[in-house]
Task: structure prediction
Amino acid sequence: MEVFERMRREGIAPSVVSFSALISAAEKGGQWKLALEILEDMKRAGLPGNVVAYSACISALAKGQQWERALDLFREIQSFGGSPSIVTYNATMTALEKGMQWERALELFEEMKMRNLPVTVVSYGGSIAACDKGLQYRQWYVLIALLE
Result:
């Protein structure tokens, strides 16, 4: 947060872009608590919700094994009128996979398809990994068949 303090001293107001960049840096450093704190600071600053910032925070939460918080943030995007991106879906499915929440991961996979978002290799991989961890091999085979 030293960066924001310096910006304020210089008379520069933090923007959605600067908050998003800082959340992304925290995510890359595996600092999910910091990423969440920065996102909260962004909201307290009255800046609008941003899918990029939320997606980076969800990715950090996935790395920190915080699937419930990741899913809450995913739903929060929709509450402010945002549309989760492919990156947001994939990051959330990764969090669910790590939390052994295969049913929820498959629900997101289906939601992606219903919203006509392009389903990527990462999307399939996250769904298949979630089924694998949940020992749901029948579901796993259904997903594999969809790839063919």
In short: Residues 62 and 95 are 4 Å apart (CA to CA). The chain has a mean pLDDT of 81. The chain has one domain: 2-147. DSSP finds nine helices and no strands in the chain.
